[in-house]
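FORM 7B: Structural annotation worksheet

SECTION A. Query
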Amino acid sequence: MRRLKHWLGGLALACAALAQAGGVDLFPVQSLASLREEARPELPPPDAASALAAPLPLAPLEAAPAPFSAVGEWRQDGQRVVVLEGLGRSFLLCVGCRMPRALQPGAKLAGQYTFKALEAERALLLDADGREHSIALHPSAN
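SECTION B. Predicted structure
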């Protein structure tokens, strides 16, 4: 009990010292009118309204990465054959080869992608929206 009285006495002295020194009033008196003025929203100037109404420029849409990865490559009859895996399937890609199940440029992969080209280090695919996807190929050991 003695500690509580000491603490309260110290608090009273601190409050009295602040009041004498012109300290901070934590609870200033406010009128109802001042509260209404604070609640009023600030409106932007009329010329700013046209700038606010202007549409924002759209960020360019980036294609999501194609769901394929290169898992193999070999040469058959002098033609390069690349194996892509994705969407639970494997696809053989080549340019000008005569393999029965190999896809040539222009063929569809899984109905959603079109085989565009084979380059030295990548296979190029187009998605349904015409965006190009580059699949990195591992350097061949040939």
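SECTION C. Observations
Residues 74 and 141 are 9 Å apart (CA to CA). The helical segments are 2-20, 32-39, 46-53.

SECTION D. Sign-off
Analyst initials: ____
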